[in-house]
Specification:
alpha+beta
Length: 144
C-alpha cells in the first residue's frame, strides 16, 4: 500500500494509520470508496461518534463475545452406564442457575444411578458467536 495514499486518507478523515490501511485495502486502493466506507461505519446520521468511546465499546463487546463463545465451547459431558455421552454447554448450566438447587439434586440422583460427569473444552465449528453477530450486523446494514 502506498504511504502517500494512506497519508491522504488520514488527512481527509483524521483516521489512524491502521484504519487508513484497513479501509484502503478493503477498497482495493480506491481512495474515494475507502473514505465512504470509513464514514459509513464511523458516523451515525450525520453525528460523529467519540473515537475513544467507540473503541472501548467494541473491545467490551468483543470480550463479551469471547466469553460467550468459551461458555459454549466448554461442555459438561454426562456419561451413562452404557458409555453413551451427552454434551451440555456450560452456558446452558449458567442460564439454569436460578434453579441450581434442583440441578444439584438431579446430579446427585444421577451419580447414584451410575452416571459420570466431566468438563471438557470441545469447540464446535458449527457454532461461532462472532459469525452470528456479523450476520446480524450485515442484515441491519441491508435494512438501512
Amino acid at each position: 500500500m502506498d504511504i502517500r495514499l494512506i497519508d491522504e486518507f488520514r488527512r481527509r478523515t483524521n483516521a489512524s494509520y491502521e484504519e487508513a490501511k484497513y479501509y484502503l485495502e478493503k477498497c482495493n486502493g480506491d481512495l474515494l470508496e475507502a473514505i465512504i466506507a470509513f464514514e459509513k461505519e464511523r458516523t451515525g446520521e450525520g453525528f460523529h461518534r467519540n473515537e475513544h468511546l467507540r473503541g472501548g465499546v467494541n473491545r467490551l463487546i468483543n470480550g463479551l463475545l469471547r466469553v460467550v463463545q468459551k461458555l459454549l465451547d466448554i461442555k459438561l459431558i454426562i456419561i451413562d452406564r452404557t458409555g453413551r455421552d451427552f454434551q451440555v454447554p456450560l452456558l446452558l448450566l449458567l442460564v439454569l442457575g436460578p434453579i441450581w438447587h434442583i440441578l444439584i439434586l438431579v446430579a446427585i440422583v444421577m451419580l447414584i444411578m451410575g452416571f459420570k460427569f466431566l468438563f471438557r473444552e470441545i469447540p464446535d465449528p458449527n457454532v461461532n458467536v462472532f459469525d452470528f453477530v456479523e450476520k446480524i450486523k450485515e442484515k441491519v446494514r441491508e435494512d438501512h
